[in-house]
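Example 3.
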Amino acid sequence: MSAFRESVESMIPALRRYARALARDTDIADDLVQDTLVRALRSEKLFIGGDLRSWLYTILTNLNRNRRRSLARKPIFTELFDNNPDASGTEAEGRDISRALAALVEEQRSVLLLVMLEGLSYREVADIQGVPIGTVMSRLARARAHVKAYLDGERPALRAVK
Amino acid sequence: MTGPNIPVTEDELHAFVDNELPAERRADVEAWLATHPDDAERVASWRAMAELLHARYDAIADETVPKRLEIERLVQQPRRWIYGAVAATLVAFVAGGSAGWVAHGAAAAPSTFRNFTVDALGAHRLYVVEVRHPVEVAGNERAHLQQWLSKRVGYEIKAPELEAAGLKLVGGRLLPGPEAPAAFFMYESPSGERYTLYTSRAAKADPTQMRYAAQDKDGAMFWADKGVGYVVSGPTDKDRLNQVARQIYDQTEKVGG
């Protein structure tokens, strides 16, 4: 196996973790990872050095954004169980971090996860999202404030509906 | 530029937690936190948040990587691997009824897979029960049907030959699709079982593995290839549906989408 493929392979566990937290569904998350890998492998010859890790996160982030955009025109499927008190007992605590993530807008969730879970630098996240560092920092600050409010038990801020 | 008397900003608090703060400023922030309990509490909450995230998601990175994500597989079997993936995702979502579909939507946001499958299964359920008018153009006008639908959906379509699976072409019709017009073909077995093929442009869909979905008594196999999405719907016998889907898949390869 080429060094490139080995490097890609070594990133699969982290990509799966990020995808799961980002998409919150096992099948969709692994689809995202698979599509990311297929794209990366297809572009092996085009990859002339640089930060492979950031590049893979970039592909995955973009694929997820496209996925969400393509479904924006579809009816919103209501999160039934969020309103159902009986269904909240699956985690040790009712206020699960994954639900807090669900209440974030896409860009904020992505920043939060890349920085806090995947340990990327502000600079790397700025490159991945194609925005200035200042934007990354304000997204991160807002994401943290929302999640904190959610975990503290306040009503989560209503999600903007496109 | 920096100093113990310069107030610490919100950005600096975040940078402090994320190890992005210049080393010479760290001591200032630590001193600040000692005298500003509100900020100290927020910093502590962000650290706790990071621990929650790791506690919740690190286990996924420790899981054995699913077969369908193995590099060797992705590199060597660009077309055939989708068969192997069927079993893995066969129970992608199997729901008891329309309520189940909505409930599933709670956990999983819609996707191309979902959009196509919902539309295709809707069409399937609507038309397979039709006795007199199941199709617009009957199967004995196959050439005309193919020409007409190819023109409307924007790529060349041939109604697959499914005689080997014991299915005869009933005919076809044009339908609205998730992104563009959709072609719809219906097949029938001697015993009256009906299968349908629903195909439409899926510009953004990357080639995917076959995925299975079920609703009440109907099952559907979805895949995408070369910017075109396909859904084969029929009775929920998965083996049979898989057999039909594979025959169609193999024939669409020759057409080249």
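Chain B touches chain A through 52 residues (CB under 8 Å). Chain B has two domains: 10-62, 67-255.
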